[in-house]
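HOLO CASE FILE
Compound: zinc ion
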Amino acid sequence: MTATSGTVRFRRVSRQDPCPVCGKPDWCRVFDDGGVQCMREASPIVCRGGGWLHWPDGRAGDWRDRVFPALPAPVPRPTPTADPVLLDRAFRALLAACPLSPAHARSCTSAG
Ligand SMILES: [Zn+2]
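Model generated. Tokens follow.
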């Protein structure tokens, strides 16, 4: 017998179609997507309605994997390097172009 739980279809196990996890003919159910809610064998995934979820044939992939494909790993940017002598000249030129105002110069010298 096939039924639905939300939008996922499932069938109850039976004597002719026992649970693929515990092998029993009752209490468990098998979903069309391959998941098995077994009421006897524990797994890391606990079902809200009781029992545990198993994927005996492996999980077909999470729907999020189909909607949002994995992005490629970011390529680390190389750390920029510069010649220290060139940097010194550049910063000295920058400081010369941006002199302190008299008020700022007094503030720097009076603060210690
Ligand atoms: Zn079972």
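CASE NOTES: Residues 82-112 form one domain. The first strand starts at residue 2 and ends at 5.
CLOSED: yes
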